[in-house]
Amino acid sequence: MKTMTCKQLGGACEEKFQAGTLEEIAELSKAHGMEMFEKQDPVHLEAMANIQQMMQQPHAMQKWFETKKSEFDALPED
User: Fold this and answer.
1) What DSSP assignment string belongs to 44-72?
2) Domain of life here (predicted)?
3) Enclosing domain of residue 56
């Protein structure tokens, strides 16, 4: 198991997500993002807008994912 924060994933806070793979952490982060969207949390909405903008550029999104995968792989096990 490894831990990443919302902020490490491009989000806006220090909420921690713990999972065995980056894909699992991404799912936890997505659920957190949906909760923050429902609450209309302004700092999370801004972070989501930035990620949505990046998603419009497939090459940028792929590079982002590769960077996050490297960061995840380098993290120590919890």
Assistant:
1) HHHHHHHHHHHHTSHHHHHHHHHHHHHHH
2) Bacteria
3) 2-74
Rg (CA), the chain: 12
Q: Distance between CA 75 and CA 78 in Å, rounded?
A: 9
Q: Which of 31, 26, 23 is nearest to 10 (CA)?
A: 26
d(CA 21, CA 77): 11
In the chain, the number of structural domains is 1
CB burial of 16-29 (b: ≥16 within 10 Å; e: otherwise) equals: ebebeebeebbebb
Structure confidence by residue, pLDDT tens digits, 8-57? 999 999 999 999 999 999 999 999 999 999 999 999 999 999 999 988 99
Task: Note whether 9 and 75 are within 8 A (CB).
Answer: no
